[in-house]
């Protein structure tokens, strides 16, 4: 090995080591990398935990024949019924304390009246349950027999959807802040300038920042998926190596974006602003907390071109559906394009002081 | 050492250097030659263009116009080669607080093909007891010594120190001067900027006085002081009086007085031989009925040189 190359390898190793030491000696890095994502996942998992089905709430208007109706409803499964006056019932319906108001007929053979707000999904369910209970009580015989088999498998719950999205978000945060903020901070402290005054190769320096970022990422996402698997039962249907490959690609892509964002800024406030401008649309539109299927078709097309959407989609496909890495090539291509473009643009525009 | 360095009779050669930032001219036609093995000082007030000049010499800024040659090579052509042989201590660098002293030196050492061991350098700057301490826990003086150590660890032929002792306490300043003298004793070249005249007098073999982007005087500290015409300064404080009083012009014809000016209620004279000048001065004052409130003599300093050249003090800001 030539002396020049030996020096470069030694310098690269020292640059990586210095960066790793700075990171693990910084309590904030550990908090944002490990504690915060776990807290966020746990909080959201609790908030959106799968609950047993809620009983529908019905009110029967006081009047003749009310006991029979109340009795029929009280015996039915998943129904809570109470008796109330016209005034009370109207009020309860208006504030959403009950789902349906049942008005028994004034005379036999006359129809029942159901009062409900059709825009509320619970109201339709309640109406069906009340109707069903009343028909059965009146002696309806069901011509078909049926039975339920309950299916509640891990992988289809909200928390299962959420965890890959949070991992994606974490990769974005870590890449953008970890690289972008760091570079601006070093520029402000004139440390970049000091390094430039040595024979250190600028490319070695930037590569060391990316490599250490990726190394941290591997540990972070291993930790997060491990926590989600052990504590929340989130499945890992695909290959962990495929997940790792996506995470490394994502991490390089976001580090590239971080480099571009920080390539000229001389103030922390400037980077802050650009970062938020970049991250906010992705936090909302890249399917971290809810599926992008909720957006109109044309919008989805644009959203799929965002790097975080690509990361989230690829992670979900591998983790939840067991997809192979090769099938995720369009998403990896999206990451490659964003990362490649921003890295080279950032390098070209980079300002050392 | 390469042939270029051995053959070079100058460590740094600058000809007609200009640097503008937009319409502001920081350096306006500065020329100098620094010889190998000497400690060369750029002395001047803040904003004189010292740092801009030094950063151009360090290859961190591009000159707007002019020629610069460092160790016989030029920036833009042999950058990497020059950097291998330079040690740089910038004005105000904040080294990473989370790294230890030893780790920081290892990092800087790794950039150079050849250099000294961090263990040697840490002893040079008297931080051997702090090797395992985080940079963030060091005092201001210790941090500055570490910054110098980072510049020394590549075993440079040419060391740049930009305001190395600004903001330090007297003890830390003396420690740093000792480090620079040690480096000089090994036959290496130092370029130093400072606005402390005592620092320039103590460390520098030759000095260029810089003001408003130009060199206004150059020479050894003794030569510069001698250029005042006298090694001594006499300061006279006058009582208020009703008579015609004394002005600087009234004293110029006294024996061995080389120059005189009024400053902050005092008359300041440059004097070659005080034992001749003082009796004559007292006689002249008595003649004019002017009582003296105070009389002091001291050795002339570079500060006096600067004042006589510009009419301003170095520390006027």
Structure described in brief:
Chain A has helices at 3-24, 27-47, 66-75, 86-94, 121-137, 158-188, 191-196, 202-232, 240-262, 268-285, 297-303, 307-321, 329-349; strands at 56-61, 79-84, 100-103, 113-115. With 353 residues, chain A is mainly alpha-helical.
Task: Provide structural commentary.
The complex is a heterodimer of chains A (353) and B (317). Chain A folds into two domains: 14-49 and 157-349, no CATH class; 56-137, abc type-2 transporter like fold (3-Layer(aba) Sandwich). Chain A is 65% helix and 5% strand. Chain A has helices at residues 3-24, 27-47, 66-75, 86-94, 121-137, 158-188, 191-196, 202-232, 240-262, 268-285, 297-303, 307-321, 329-349, and strands at residues 56-61, 79-84, 100-103, 113-115. Chain A has a four-stranded mixed β-sheet. In chain A, strand 1, helix 3 and strand 2 (79-84) form a beta-alpha-beta unit. In chain A, helix 6 (158-188) packs antiparallel against helix 8 (202-232) and helix 8 packs across helix 9. The longest helix of chain A has 31 residues, at 158-188. Chain A is elongated. Chain A starts with a helix and ends with a helix. The model of chain A has no long low-confidence stretch (mean pLDDT 89). Chain B has 317 residues and is α/β, with parallel strands linked by helices. Helices cover 32% and strands 27% of the residues of chain B. In chain B, a hairpin with a 2-residue loop joins strand 1 and strand 2. In chain B, helix 4 (101-110) packs across helix 5 and helix 6 runs parallel beside helix 7 (170-185). The longest helix of chain B has 16 residues, at 170-185. Chain B is elongated and about 75 Å long. The two termini of chain B are 43 Å apart. Chain A binds chain B through residues 3-4, 7, 10-11, 13-15, 17-18, 21-22, 25-26, 189-191, 193-200, 353, and chain B through 58-60, 80, 83-84, 86, 88, 90, 92-96, 98-99, 103, 106-108, 110-113, 134, 150, 154.
């Amino acid at each position: 090995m030539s002396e020049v190359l030996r020096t470069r390898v030694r310098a690269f190793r020292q640059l990586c080591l210095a960066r790793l030491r700075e990171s693990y000696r910084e309590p904030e890095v550990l908090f944002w990398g490990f504690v915060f994502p776990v807290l966020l996942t746990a909080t959201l998992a609790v908030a959106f935990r799968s609950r047993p089905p809620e009983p529908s709430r019905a009110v029967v208007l006081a009047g003749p024949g009310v006991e029979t109706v109340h009795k029929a409803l009280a015996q039915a499964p998943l129904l809570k019924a109470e008796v109330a006056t016209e005034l009370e019932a109207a009020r309860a319906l208006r504030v959403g304390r009950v789902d349906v108001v049942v008005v028994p007929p004034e005379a036999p053979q006359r129809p029942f009246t159901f009062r409900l707000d059709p825009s509320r999904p619970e109201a339709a369910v309640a109406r069906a349950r009340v109707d069903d209970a009343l028909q059965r009580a009146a002696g309806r015989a069901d011509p078909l027999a049926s039975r339920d088999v309950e299916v509640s498998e891990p992988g289809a719950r909200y928390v299962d959807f959420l965890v890959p999205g949070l991992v994606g978000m974490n990769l974005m945060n870590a890449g953008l802040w970890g690289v972008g903020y760091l570079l601006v901070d070093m520029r402000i402290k004139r440390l970049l300038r000091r390094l430039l005054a040595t024979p250190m190769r600028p490319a070695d320096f930037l590569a060391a920042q990316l490599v250490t970022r990726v190394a941290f990422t591997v540990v972070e996402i291993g930790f997060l998926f491990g926590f989600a698997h052990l504590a929340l039962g989130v499945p890992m249907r695909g290959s962990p190596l495929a997940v790792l490959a996506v995470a490394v690609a994502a991490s390089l892509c976001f580090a590239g974006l971080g480099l571009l964002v920080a390539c000229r800024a001389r103030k922390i406030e400037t980077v802050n602003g650009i970062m938020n401008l970049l991250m906010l649309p992705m936090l909302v539109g890249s399917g971290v907390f809810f599926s992008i299927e909720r957006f109109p078709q044309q919008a989805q097309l644009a959203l799929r071109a965002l790097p975080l959407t690509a990361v989230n989609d690829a992670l979900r496909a591998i983790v939840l559906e067991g997809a192979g890495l090769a099938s995720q090539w369009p998403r990896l291509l999206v990451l490659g394009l964003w990362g490649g473009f921003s890295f080279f643009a950032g390098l070209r525009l980079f300002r050392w002081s | 050492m390469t042939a270029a360095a051995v053959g070079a009779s100058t460590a740094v050669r600058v000809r007609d250097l200009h640097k503008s930032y937009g319409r502001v001219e920081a350096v306006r036609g500065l020329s100098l030659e620094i010889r190998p093995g000497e400690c060369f000082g750029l002395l001047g007030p803040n904003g004189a263009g010292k740092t801009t000049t030094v950063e151009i010499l360090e290859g961190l800024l591009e000159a707007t116009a002019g020629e610069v040659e460092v160790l016989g090579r030029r920036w833009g052509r042999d950058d990497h080669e020059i950097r291998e042989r330079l040690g740089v201590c910038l004005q105000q660098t904040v080294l990473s607080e989370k790294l230890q002293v030893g780790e920081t030196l290892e990092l800087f050492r790794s950039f150079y093909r050849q250099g000294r061991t961090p263990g040697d350098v840490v002893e040079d700057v008297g931080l051997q007891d702090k090797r395992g301490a985080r940079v963030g826990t060091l005092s201001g003086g210790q941090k500055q010594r570490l910054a110098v150590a980072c510049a020394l660890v590549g075993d440079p032929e040419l060391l740049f120190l930009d305001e190395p002792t600004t903001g330090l306490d007297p003890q830390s300043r003396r420690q740093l001067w000792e480090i620079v003298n040690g480096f000089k004793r090994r036959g290496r070249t130092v370029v130093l900027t400072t606005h402390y005249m005592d620092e320039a007098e103590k460390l520098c073999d030759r000095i260029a006085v810089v003001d408003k982007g130009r060199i206004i005087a150059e020479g050894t500290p003794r030569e510069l002081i001698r250029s005042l015409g006298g090694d001594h300064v006499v300061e006279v404080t006058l009582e208020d009086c009703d008579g015609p009083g004394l002005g600087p012009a009234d004293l110029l014809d006294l024996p061995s007085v080389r120059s005189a000016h009024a400053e902050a209620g005092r008359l300041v004279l440059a004097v070659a031989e005080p034992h001749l000048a003082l009796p004559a001065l007292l006689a002249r004052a008595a003649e004019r009925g002017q009582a003296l409130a105070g009389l002091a003599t001291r050795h002339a300093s570079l500060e006096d040189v600067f004042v006589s050249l510009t009419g301003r003090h170095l520390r006027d800001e």
